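Model the whole thing, not chain by chain.
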Amino acid sequence: AQKVTQAQTEISVVEKEDVTLDCVYETRDTTYYLFWYKQPPSGELVFLIRRNSFDEQNEISGRYSWNFQKSTSSFNFTITASQVVDSAVYFCALIGQAGTALIFGKGTTLSVSS
Amino acid sequence: EAQVTQNPRYLITVTGKKLTVTCSQNMNHEYMSWYRQDPGLGLRQIYYSMNVEVTDKGDVPEGYKVSRKEKRNFPLILESPSPNQTSLYFCASSHIPGTSRRYNEQFFGPGTRLTVL
């Protein structure tokens, strides 16, 4: 069975702090895709990143960075110098090689205060 | 603009009154899917479709129906809504997930907030 665990239910930080959102996954597939989505208070799902299982290169996009480690089945997301606009629910998701559904974690609610 | 549209965005209805939530995509995607989002449970798949006239159950299909008569449309039908179907619903589309070389991401619609009284 496939599973995504986001152990942090809620995180609160003050602006300009760095914050890391954890994601641990389980799958028996050798090929799979991992995703992060952001859900702001308005409710839509905003795609942030996709990572293939065969590409372990970490990625940086502005203040966002992602650390993919197959050895620990983790795909963590770091926001550097957080801002109030980063306040949202963040979902990690997985789909396997022959998958028919994205498997979502339960989400981490990030609150950034000024 | 590539997009997935859903209508209505907000709906308040009463128990037992049939309703349809429409979903349409303009990216020529083969795969379409419906998810529901509930507090503390994340998103769970209701139904999916790999192509026209091909649909299958997801994790929580009870109380829902779907159809895929055209590639671009994938309506979600609640024949007799009940209060436990109060939720935020998302439609998604993509190229065939998994082994498809063209698979990139699932594009999500803006969501439909449904309240069943």
